[in-house]
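Dataset card, provenance and construction

Sequences and ligand SMILES were collected as paired inputs. For each pair, a complete structure of the chain with the small molecule in place was predicted and serialized as structure tokens. The example below shows a pair involving zinc ion. Curators did not alter the output after generation; any descriptive sentences attached to a record were derived from the structure itself.
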Amino acid sequence: MPCWYPNANSRVPYTRTQPPRLQADVVLRDLLELPVEQHFRGTAVHEAAHAVLLQSLGATVEWVVVRPYTELAGDEPAGENSAVYDMYVGDLLTCLAAGERAESRWLGESGLLTPVRAYAVELLAQGDRDMAGNLVRDLLGRELTFGVAVGEAFDYQSAHDAADAALDRCWPAVIAVADALVAHRRLDGEQIAALSAHAH
Ligand SMILES: [Zn+2]
């Protein structure tokens, strides 16, 4: 069972990756140390995983957009989606965790995964983890935990494990959708469903 490390100086309170020694002024996205094309593909894989899992669990995905970080205006996100869902909280957390788990998996398969990059992927998923924390608070009336109540819907380890298992099944679809996002930057739900159906 992986253990989770506390992050004293971060808005992401726990990571599965041991926090590396970093310069205080390091910019988060620079931690990935990837050329913009590879950084963009990682973002596409992350967003594709959210979308494919949301659809597989019954959500209606309206659209997904990705942008290279060199083209972001203001605090525009590198990736976002619009989806309508009525889902069990554990499934929602699985969809949220799938983004960071897919990004790490893709880095690993590409020979690009280092401890610092694994750590950066977790920190860059702060928005997803904040949303998971809010869902657990609002729907279950408790705080999100990390690796202390594995198997419970309120523990993010459970979401990671469920996301990893789902990605084992859906990986060709995630890669097909990510490739299309890199090419087109925006896909609607029907396009994502069609790409998933034809990916093996
Ligand atoms: Zn995400």
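Derived descriptions for this record:
The chain has a mean pLDDT of 94.
The two ends are 30 Å apart (CA to CA).
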